[in-house]
Amino acid sequence: MGSRVCGGCLSGLLIPLALWSIIVNILLYFPNGQASYASSNKLTNFVWYFEGICFSGVMMLIVAAVLLVLENENNHKCCQSENCTKKYMTMLSIIFSTLGIAFSGYCLVISALGLVQGPYCRTLKGWTYAFEGTAGRFLTDSSTWVQCLEPPNIVEWNIILFSILIALSGLQVIVCLIRIVIQLFKILCGTYSVIIQPGII
Length: 201
Hints:
This protein is mainly alpha-helical.
């Protein structure tokens, strides 16, 4: 009962994390609240991967909903014995938790790449990736950020939002990993037998 409650709390935690991922990703399209840069395609290319909206957002909401259903004690039996039903519920939980790691991991990687690449901005040489060749060293050298003349404060905007996306998706990965560990603990430590004995069904 305790592991079921714990699993349900973890699944529920994925929902606000996914909603925040969607919100943060949307903000990346509107530097300083302006929509003109998105409409003229003057944003970093990594925002068009929809990592926070689709993968760490909508897909994670679906994963969380499925996991919450699997944790529901009133699930219909999928086979004749209770042990058999628990087996399939556990396997499905592991599969969807693994999918959750894949979705949130994608968001984490893309956000990290966007953070290291730096923003697409207007410099004295025109619109370009001013920090693309710095391997992320510009992140700790704020004196170089003045190279980006437009959008205003775009370096800070990208650093803050991509960092938040990394943190949110990282938490999602951790939650899904913990869920997998809980399910494996049930299997390996005898919470119930996964192998159905002859004559049970």
